[in-house]
Each structure stands twice: as C-alpha cells, then as structure tokens.
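Hi support team,

I'm filing this because I wasn't sure whether my run with 2-acetamido-2-deoxy-beta-D-glucopyranose finished correctly. The job status page said complete, but I'd like someone to confirm that the output block is well-formed before I use it downstream. Pasting the exact inputs I used:
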Amino acid sequence: MKAMQVIFLTLLVVLVTSAQVSEECPTPDVQANFDVSKYLGKWYGIKKVQNSFQKGECSTALYSLKSPGVIGVLNSGLLEDGTIRSAVATAQVTNSSEPAKLEVTFSQASSSAPYWVLSTDYEGYSLVYSCSDIKSGREYAWILSREPTLPQETVEKLEGILSSIGVDVNKMLPTKQDEAYCSIMHQ
Ligand SMILES: *[C@@H]1O[C@H](CO)[C@@H](O)[C@H](O)[C@H]1NC(C)=O
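And here is everything the job wrote out:
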C-alpha cells in the first residue's frame, strides 16, 4: 500500500511539473507511415495561422525531389500589385524513424523551422504544423489542398486536430484562391 502511495505521489509531481512547462511546443501525433514521394507536387494554401513571412494571396507550394532525402520547396504568392513573390527552401527528414517530421531551411533567411505533417491523404488535403517557440509566437499551421478549394467538412476536421493540441483556430485566416483573382497562379 505504501509503495502505491509513493508511485501515486510521484505521478502527481510529474504531472504538476509537466503542467508548469506547458508553454513548450506540443508534440502532436503526425501522419503514420508518411510517404514523401506521394506528397510531392503542387499544393494550394487554404487556411493558415497568420504569419509575417508569407506574402500575398493565392499561395501555392511546390515540392520536388532534389536528391535522395532532400526536397526542394518553392512557395509562391500573388501580391496586390500583380507580381508573384516566391521563396525557395529545402526540406529534410532529420530522423528517419519519424518521416513526417521535416525541417525546412529557407535559403534567403538561412533560418529553419519544423514542418510536421499531422495528417494527409496525399491526394486531397494536408495539415502542416510548425512550432519552434510558443512564447515568441513561432507557432504556425497550414491547411493545404491539391485543389484551390477544400470541402468545409475537411477544413473543420483538420481544425479539430489543431484545437486538440491547443492551437487557437480562430487565429486562422482563409487564403484567397478564387479562380478569377488567382488565374495566373492556378495555371
Ligand atoms: C528518432 O525517432 C525515434 C522514434 O520516435 C526515437 O526513439 C529516437 O530517439 C529518435 N532519434 C534521435 C536521434 O532523435
């Protein structure tokens, strides 16, 4: 009986301690058996947690295999003046036991950030989460789609996953993808 009490108290202390460091990034489940080869190609941005580095509407992400284990990233957005702004990056898996956890390095900024695929069916939707420091606001998320639109129930399902790990989905903004406004990006 005494031993049980000690175990219980120890558990309680561990739980209380972990509650105190809750400002650290969560470590959500990621897409099981992630297959990056099925993930390559073009994705459209549907909704995202607001960020300062991604400019423009009609955003697209193009992923290609550069060399074994290295993915080329080309992010593009349409600015209000009609020009296309692009950012080039590479993405790599850092631990082969966790293939859905990539690290993206932007060539301009020479900074890197996590790119975790929380959920994807490869052909329809993808939910991407990136957290490097919650306290300084470096927590982002993107809902991507193979088409410029995504069914509302899919968006809600993915937002449910984000809510469950503590992301305030009210902070997510839709990305403009209307056919007329974005025609230059949809070719
Ligand atoms: C790689 O991931 C596995 C599974 O999550 C983990 O057990 C292992 O410690 C990780 N290796 C490194 C070097 O982080």
